[in-house]
Amino acid sequence: MHVIQIGSLSISLKWLLLGVGILIVLFFIKFWVKKTYEGELHKKVFDLLVNTLILGFFIWKGSLIVLEPSIVMNSPLSLLYFTGGSKGLILAMIGSIIYFILKGRKINIPNPLIKKILAVTALSGLIGWTMYDFATSIEKTVKEGESKLKSSVEIGIKEGNKAPDFQLKNIEGQNVRLSDFKGKKVILNLWATWCPPCKAEMPHMKDFYQKQKGKDVEIVAVNLTTSEKNPESVEQFVKDYGLTFPVLLDENGEIGDVYQAITIPTSYFIDTNGIIHERIVGPMDKEMMTDLINSMN
Asked: Thioredoxin domain: from which residue to which, for each copy (predicted)?
């Protein structure tokens, strides 16, 4: 599983492991310094590490402004829900290292200790990333093997089920079936115009879709029209956000019920055979979409 679901919040497994790893390293360094050095040095080091982590987190969040200015301008809510992703993490690491070195020297932490802490942190990060990469590659191999062994698949909305087919009208009034996209990797997204995380997600979805052109990847955005105060606002929303992927209208609420879109946005990643690979509740950024799409057949 590449994503951990916590209520209506979806967190990439790599970021969750990163956070856990940082906490483990933080307390390991505190214990090591306390046992190795005398006096109050361990308290200085621990406080500096905590401040460095806080600074790094804000750099990571704020890096979205630098890396994706157009997305932030179109949807300022992106700053609330998303970070700068892997590229932003690099900026956060550079800023944190510079701060740690300069501040450490200012409060008289010995240079050899600063170097050792940075080395231990870097080594821990490398080991953690290698383990994550190895685990995800094994998971992908296992899932591919399981899919080959299955001769028939149950229709349903759980991972490994065949996605229930349906037919809805798009905003142009044409009938569109989910099965029309068989042979493509599909993100089935259930959303509404009044939903703040849906608004934050849409610019990411738009950019992701444009970059996936010619790669047999499709986004099918099903608007939960029965929840809209003004159904006519859907077409205006699509124009305002410049969406080019299919937008379908669930005017009777049936598809929202079938796919259990209780909390929105809710998205299903469906592979080329129509099998559900992952269910995500909550907004996604481009990096999460790309990781999940690349992990599918």
From this structure: 157-297
